[in-house]
Design brief:
The protein is α+β, with helices and mostly antiparallel strands. It is built from two helices and eight strands; from the N terminus they run αββββββαββ. The protein has helices at residues 2-23, 121-124, and strands at 27-34, 42-49, 54-61, 67-74, 77-86, 105-107, 126-128, 132-137. Strands 2, 3, 5, 6 and 7 form a five-stranded antiparallel beta sheet that branches. Strands 4-1-8 form a three-stranded mixed beta sheet, with no helix packed on it. A hairpin with a 4-residue loop joins strand 2 (42-49) and strand 3.
Amino acid sequence: MKNLIMSLMVLLVSTASLFGQYNDQLISIEINVEELVSEGGGIALQLLNEDNQKVASAYINIGQGAAKVSFDYLKPGKYAVKLFHDENGNGKMDTNFLSIPTEGYGFSNNALGILSMPPDFAEMLFYAIDDTAIKINVVY
């Protein structure tokens, strides 16, 4: 009986440590930006958590009509990405007199808004439980 109790305690402790390891797991999210019309400027990008708070940002160089960035050491969860192609390198999203973007832009899940308005934030969210790679097509 003593051995049975000791075995159950060891099993319980080892199971608890396995769950603890999973909860402490860190992941990477790789973002591939495609369908760029030019290699001018760069891609200004933000990674947001499910509360629409900025987790990370990057300014990515363009090569051969595409760009790629990886964010490491993230907790598993829901994330969203928004970006724009800063073609002239001025660090801001340029718009015309009607506030319609004149530079390319994109969102995770390739979500689209209506009449160049951003999509609903919920449409951009994706799950990242393990290392995850997503592709975003830029809209011009």
